[in-house]
C-alpha cells in the first residue's frame, strides 16, 4: 500500500512540474473539500457502535479520520480503478452467525443495523445440512440494484439495495470490516421477482486467492463448496415458510460477466446519488462526491445528521431466540418438515 501511494504522489509531482497550467484548471473546476476527508485512506477507518447488539436500536457507523461516512456511498467500489476484478466489500454478517445485519438504506450515512421481522430482530434459520451463514456476507459499496428497469439478463427489476457478495475466505471476518476481494463469479438470484445478485469473492489476502480466478478453480481446492453455497441461497428461506429461491441460469455466471454487471450497477448507483434516479426513501447523503447535491462536508456530517458523538460502552449482545439454534429439515419435495409441538 505504501509503495502505491508513493508511486502515485511521484506521478502527481511529475505532472505538476511538467504542466502547471493543468493543475490550476483542476483547482478551479472542483471545490477542494477540507483536507481532512479529501482522500480515502484505508488505514484511517474505524467503527462506532451505539446500543446493544441483537436489538433493533443497535447501530454501527463507519468513521474515516474519526468522522462518520457512509458504508454505501463513501467507500470506493474499486481499490484500483484499473483492475475491475478486485472490489471493496463491506462485511455485514461474519461467518457462523445468524443475525440478518445490513446497511440501513433510509438512514443518513446508512449505518449497519439489525434487520427487523415482525417487530423483532431477524435471524436466518439453519436448513440441514447448512449451519448459520457458511461464508462472510455483505454488500458491495457504490453499487445499486436499480428497481426502475428490468435487468437485461434476469428480466426482473433490482431490489433497491446495494449488490450483495459472499466471501469464501478462511477468516470469519467481522461486522463493519472493509476488505478487498477478487470476483470469482456470481449467482443471479430471483428473490420475489426482483434481481438480487449474490457475487462470489475471496479476500485478496487469503492464501487461496492467488490460485483461483473463477468459481471452477475453487472446485479444485474445495470440492463441493460452490454447489453447497448455491444450495444455501436456494433453500434458506423455506424454513420460515417461503418458497425456494430460483437462480436464473441455474448455476454461477462467469467472471467477465459479473465484473461487467458490477460495473453496470456502479453506473446505476451514480444515477442514484446524483439525483438522476428518484431515491425514494433511500438516504443518498454522502461525503465523498463533492460535485453532487447529495454531498455534505465530512466535518459537518456528524452534527447536521445527528450522529452520536461517542460509541456506547461495550456490552453483551441480547440473547438470540432458541429456535435459531435449531436445524430445520426439508422433504425431497423441498418443503419444510413440520413436527407437531416443536416450535
Ligand atoms: C418489466 O417486465 C415486466 C414483465 O415483463 C413488465 O410488466 C414491466 O413493464 C417491465 N418494466 C419496465 C420498467 O420495463
Ligand atoms: C459469460 O457469461 C455470459 C452470460 O451468461 C455469456 O453470454 C458469455 O458467453 C460467457 N462468457 C464465457 C467466456 O463463457
Ligand atoms: C462528480 O465527480 C465524480 C468524481 O468525484 C465523477 O465520477 C462524476 O462523474 C461527477 N459527476 C458529475 C455529475 O459531474
UniProtKB/TrEMBL annotation:
Keywords: Hydrolase, Magnesium, Metal-binding, Signal. Residues 1-18 form the signal peptide. Its cofactor is Mg(2+). Its EC number is 3.6.1.1. It comes from the Eukaryota. GO terms for cellular component: cytoplasm. Belongs to the PPase family. This is inorganic diphosphatase.
